[in-house]
Amino acid sequence: MSEDESPEPGPAGPSKIFAPGLLDGQVVLISGAGSGIGRVTAFELAGLGATVIGCGRRIEPLEQAAALAVEAGGKFEAVACDIRDESAVEEMVAGICARHGRIDTLVNNAGGQFLSPAEGISAKGFRTVTELNVQGTWNMTHAVAAACWIPGEANPPGVEVSGGKVISITLSPHNGMPGMVHSGAARAAVENMMKTLSIEWSRFGIRLNAVAPGQIATHTLKTKYPAKMVDTMEETIPLGRLGEPEEMAWLIAYLASPAGDFFSGTTITMDGARDNWFGSWPPEIGQEDGKPLAEDRKPKRPPG
Prior knowledge:
The chain has helices at about 35-45, 60-70, 85-100, 125-150, 180-200, 220-225, 225-230, 245-255; strands at about 25-30, 50-55, 75-80, 105-110, 165-170, 205-215, 265-270. It is α/β, with parallel strands linked by helices. The chain has one domain (about 20-275): 3-Layer(aba) Sandwich (Rossmann fold). The protein has a seven-stranded parallel beta sheet with strand order 3-2-1-4-5-6-7, sandwiched between helices. Helix 4 (about 125-150) runs parallel beside helix 5. It starts with about 25 loop residues before the first strand and ends in a 34-residue tail after the last strand. The mean pLDDT is about 90.
């Protein structure tokens, strides 16, 4: 499939939720911006006036997304970077600072995992997932904070040192994910990282949060995972549907805006109540409409 035939979506036009110019003047760095939630988020933020720098290991999908965003009137720069490589991340951040003098928001979206029984995951496989999700998130968060938000010797010349925001994308459910023990462990680590840093770095005006999406209808979800799993996924979600990538993008835009300035140290779960339930919905022990069963009770005696 050629780049022009990419199955990933393009810009959807003006935001359906937010006013034009909401993020005017902001510089936002998004990892994993070439596909899925990261790509749709990049389009939404660029459409709201932010200068978006999208990074990822593969430059081709990033350049294709950037071209579409620019054609729609947005600002989107594509940068190839393996977030597991500390030096590469620091070099990328230094380049952004040199070009723009600031980074206002970091969206740690890049991540990955694969389905496997726990006993089938090798040490290398487990390490690969944790390096990308945990070490990569730390590399990005530390590099941006040291360069742009924490006064010190790491500040590049001319950078506007001030507080900023980190939004890290994790996963729901939180009650255990059979077949994804490596990813569950990694995402839990990232959520705790955001909580800890929200306290420690509050003195620098840095706000850090995690967003935990459930099953979101991305191209990857629809094509990478077993058809039997995908076809029955909606049956496990109390709201009865998959989430849309745009819904994640809107939440991230909200947090990046002034409306999100008092959010810090929390994990926002967006999964149609899936985090609170495991099994089919409506449950077999209930009624067809999902209304819980009620016990038969004796009628009240009339007064007197």
